[in-house]
Amino acid sequence: MAEQALSVGGGRIPSGQGQAYWLITDRFTFKLTGADTSGAFALAELTAQPEFGPPPHVHQRADESFYVLDGSMAFTLAGHAFTAGPGDVVHLPRGVVHTHLAHGGPARALVMQSPAGVEHFIEEAGVVVTDPAQQPGPPTLEALERIIAIAAKHHIEVPPIG
Question: Is residue 104's pLDDT more than 70?
Fold first, then answer.
């Protein structure tokens, strides 16, 4: 993230800039990380696809908020399902099982985690984006098991289904 690394601890992050990772079929482009915000929050642009999303999970140490930019997203929060569209904000508090998925087509959102830390999980579990046009397909069972094991190290729980 070249442009925001200013000596005063702030700056402009131009459009299209930021470290990007594929996590499952979602692309997270980090605009700000804990290193930029003294650990207060991390901010990423999410590009999500409707074919596959994260399994239900619980962030034990961070709240997560989505500001939907384009498309529609389906969410569950504590078993309650709902959708959100452009301009909607969705807040997912820590300690509550939730999930998200693009609904009816690709979707984009700004995602903020507070406090920061999710960027370390995504960096370890994800794959650096070298070509944004080369979206990965759905993960194998082995890949999902690896991601779930890494999530546990970062205080993200994936409860058993059933």
Answer: yes
